[in-house]
Design brief:
Layout lengths: L8 E7 L3 H12 L4 E4 L8 H4 L20 H6 L9 H14 L6 E2 L4 E7 L4 E6 L4 E9 L21 E4 L14 E5 L3 H13 L2 E6 L5 E3 L7 H9 L1 H8 L20 H14 L2 H5 L9 H19 L2 H7 L11 E3 L2 H4 L5 E5 L5 E5 L2 E4 L3 E3 L2 E4 L8 H6 L9 H7 L15 E3 L12 H21 L4 E4 L1 H16 L29 H13 L5 E4 L9
Parallel strand pairs: 1-2, 1-6, 2-3, 6-17, 7-16, 8-9, 8-16, 9-12, 10-11
Antiparallel strand pairs: 4-5, 5-6, 13-14, 14-15, 18-19
Helix pairs in contact: 1-15, 10-11, 15-17
The structure holds 3-acetylpyridine adenine dinucleotide.
């Protein structure tokens, strides 16, 4: 189905060689499309290439956090543990790149800085930092959701004479913390994973906490041969089930309310999912904590008690107990985080009591004290979901800027396309389930839908696809309505852009769940890809 006409023009440019970009390239190849991947890193793997900090692991179980598109691949890749480490996930993605011979169409070190739609030509012109321009009919932004680190500059940062390490740009060779004094800024999922590992080697660790997180133990362990064999035997069923559930894992959708059973039963049920470990089962113990604040208060109280238990020291525990609803900020998963905070060489610095004023030449300064350190670890988060594309700032019809549009509101049709930006697809874009689900399922959903949409256009001999403004408006309103019925708006978080100054305040992931979203995609495809217009040549904006 090769479509390109002009020499040097590709059918598809894929931006990013993470899990989404690799599968998109493989899919394009299978469709006979000429695709090229532009990847800014010096290796494939995306999120798992960059985030090499100690303790980096996924919070979705390895048997689920993987591709389902190839039977042999899923049978043959033997995950070692319940939760895979960053090196193992990176090795898996590298294996996929080799296994499907993807590397020959991936340009590494190609950092995309601009993308412009040429309306007359019906093509995207994409520029990289090396000044090279690449042209294609279609662009697939497989740019990831947590790939634009928050640009935090602290007062005095340039004068600090020690080492500053950003968790999302961790040196490939690692860092030796032995005997060092360290400050970790940030207590989200990343800070919570880093701290226990650093504390094992460092002389002293200051954990600088502005907002405490809820965290549950991973209870990580090795996967036995029996478990792995049993899981592999029923993989097709497991994968099918995952596409019907809320979170994209093979966990039943909860149908019991917190208030349908006795208080003892509630506590016993939470104890069971807490003891199992990880966030997925706990969040689906009952059907209402995310949509009913009273039910959320119950699980919040349960988790607060677990923090008290794990920490022992009541004063310390109270500083660690969050006051936001569970799940409204990411529920973290840890291995010995709270226990680590009770070590002699670890000190919690509560920035709500004593705000961080900045860096000194020898450490960090709060309103109460100077803490001298050799290393400052920034685990300060990301400009999530829209950040990566806001950075590139594609220009669509009439030279309109995507950043400009999303600065007003992160509108999107299904998280897949943005009106006014023809032929640009956004894998796991805003207002799709993305980070609120198993990302591999969300990625496969999108790549497969894009493939069907491209085939639909090709059958008509069309080379332009665009979301209509009406479809975008309806979906954007629907996503906002779903979010308004949840606890997500009740906390400042990266989910709703509150961690980035000036970012529009909208809940960015679609909260209707993977299963409901898949049903929508299927229904829209069956209805002639309702809301998407195709055309044979670049034309005026789609009709109303
Ligand atoms: O980022 P975060 P993250 N001064 O935004 C603090 C995924 N992930 O990298 O909230 C002081 O959650 C900030 O404080 P506050 C996962 O989806 C998954 O940890 O702004 N502090 C917060 O404590 C996760 O949710 C895994 O008050 C500042 C922290 O930095 C997402 O990635 C592992 C500050 C940022 O927390 C992002 O997690 C890791 C400032 N100026 C990540 N600026 C797993 O799978 C920010 N902070 C397990």
């Amino acid at each position: 189905m090769t479509e390109n006409t002009a020499p040097g023009r590709h059918d598809v440019i894929i931006i990013g060689a993470g899990a989404a970009g690799l599968y998109m390239l493989h899919t394009c190849r299978r469709m006979g499309l000429d695709a090229v991947v532009l990847e800014r890193g010096d290796g494939v793997g995306g999120t798992w290439y960059w985030n090499r900090y100690p303790g980096a692991r996924c919070d979705v179980e390895s048997l689920d956090y993987s591709y389902s598109f190839d039977e042999d691949l899923q049978r043959e890749w033997r995950w070692a543990e319940k939760y895979a480490t960053q090196p193992e996930i990176l090795a898996y993605l590298e294996h996929v790149a080799d296994r499907f011979d993807l590397r020959r169409d991936i340009r590494l070190g190609a950092d995309v800085v601009a993308a412009d739609f040429d309306e007359a030509d019906g093509a995207w012109r994409v520029r990289t930092t090396d000044g090279r321009e690449t042209t294609a009919t279609w662009v697939v932004a497989a740019t990831g959701v947590l790939s634009a680190p928050k640009r935090t500059r602290f007062p005095g940062q340039d004068d600090f004479t020690g080492t500053v390490l950003n968790s999302a740009r961790w040196p490939a060779g690692g860092h030796d913390f032995t005997g060092k004094r360290v400050a970790v800024i940030g207590t989200g999922s990343t800070g919570i994973q880093i701290t226990p590992l650093v504390a094992q080697d460092a002389a002293k660790v200051f954990v600088l906490q502005r907002t405490p997180s809820f965290s549950v133990p991973a209870h990580n362990r090795t996967l036995t041969d029996e478990e792995f064999t049993a899981a592999v035997a029923r993989y097709p069923e497991r994968r099918r089930a995952a596409r019907t559930t809320l979170l994209g894992v093979d966990t039943r959708n909860p149908d019991v309310s917190t208030f349908d059973v006795s208080e003892e039963e509630v506590q016993a049920a939470y104890r069971k999912t807490f003891d199992y470990g990880g966030p997925m089962k706990l969040l689906t113990t009952f059907n209402d904590p995310i949509v009913d604040k009273r039910a959320n208060d119950v699980v919040a109280a349960f988790l607060a008690d677990r923090i008290r238990e794990r920490v022992g020291d009541p004063g310390l525990a109270e500083r660690l107990i969050p006051d936001h609803p569970v799940g409204a900020r990411r529920l973290c998963v840890d291995t010995d985080y709270y226990e680590t905070l009770t070590r002699d060489n670890v000190e919690l610095v509560d920035l709500r009591e004593t705000p961080l004023l900045g860096f000194t030449p020898t450490g960090v300064r709060t309103s109460a004290a100077d803490h001298d350190v050799d290393v400052i670890v920034l685990a300060t988060g990301f400009d999530a979901i829209t950040g990566p594309l806001r950075g590139i700032d594609p220009h669509g019809r009439g030279g309109a800027s995507l950043r400009g549009k999303w600065d007003a509101y992160p509108a999107s049709y299904l998280g897949l396309m943005v009106a006014g930006f023809p032929n640009l697809f956004t894998v796991t874009g805003p207002l799709s389930p993305s980070v609120n689900s198993n990302m591999f399922v969300a990625i496969e959903q999108h790549v497969e839908f894009i493939a069907k949409l491209l085939a639909h256009a090709a059958e008509r001999g069309h080379t332009v696809i665009e979301a209509t403004p009406e479809a975008e408006e309806r979906w954007t309103a629907h996503a906002a309505e779903v979010a308004a019925g949840t606890v997500f708006p009740l906390a400042d978080s990266w989910y709703n852009g509150a961690n980035i100054a000036g970012k529009a305040g909208a809940v960015l992931p679609y909260l209707g769940g993977i299963g409901g979203y898949q049903a929508r995609l299927d229904e829209i495809a069956a209805d002639g890809f309702r809301g998407f217009e195709t055309a044979g040549r670049p034309a005026a904006a789609p009709s109303a």
